[in-house]
Design brief:
The protein is about 45% helix and about 15% strand. It has nine helices and eight strands. The chain has helices spanning about 15-30, 40, 50-55, 60-80, 90-100, 110-120, 145-155, 170-175, 190-195, and strands at about 5, 15, 85, 105, 130, 160-165, 180-185, 200-205. It has a six-stranded parallel beta sheet with strand order 5-4-1-6-7-8, sandwiched between helices. It has a two-stranded antiparallel sheet with strand order 2-3. Helix 9 (about 190-195) links the parallel strand 7 and strand 8 (about 200-205).
Amino acid sequence: MYRCYLFDFDYTLVDSTEGIVGCFLRTLAEMGRPPLPSLAIQRTIGLPMPEAVGRLLGTKDEATIEDFIRRYQPYADRYMTPGTHFFPGVPEVLAQLRKGGAKIAIISSKTSRRIQEKLDESGTAAYIDFVIGCREVALPKPDPEGILQALRRFSLPKETVLYTGDSLVDAQAAEAAGVDFAAVTTGTTTAAALARYPHVRVMDRLSELLTS
C-alpha cells in the first residue's frame, strides 16, 4: 500500500450530477437562456468553474461568465451539498485506508468550503487530513500545484503517493507532479482515454484500490 492517497472529488469520490446539473439549469432559467442537455453539463464537471461556464455558454466574455457564477452561487449554497452523494463503498474505502495508517487529502477544482460541507454532513471528515480546492492554488489542474502542495504538507516522497481521479486533467496533473496515478471510470471519461496516460490501474469503482 501507499503511505498517502490523494483524491479528486467530483466523479471520483462523489456523484455530484444532481447538484451541479440542477444548479446550472436553474441559473440558465434565471438568465432567460434555454436549458442545456444534462450530459453536456456533466462533461464539464471537474473543470474550473469559469472554464466550465465559458464552454457551456459558448463565450469567453469575462463579464458574462462572472454574472453566471454570481447567479449560480445562491443555488449552489442551497442545492449542492444535498445533491452530492458518495459513490457506493467510498466512505468504507476511506475508513479502511485511514485504519491502515494512510494519509489522505482531496485535490479538487471545487472550492474547499463546498467539499468540507459534504465531508461534515456525511461524517467522513475524520478520514481526510485536508482539502486543497481551487482557491488554495494559483493554477488549477492539470497544473500539479495542488498535488505538490499536498506532498510538501505531508513531507512524503513522491514514490509513496497515489493520486486517484476520473478525468484527463487528473491524469495530466499526476504525470506532471511525478506521482503514481490510478484512474476510476465513475465519471464521463472512458477507460481507454484514461489508459493513454501513465497509470498503475484503471478501475470501475474505488473499492478496487483495496485489492491487490
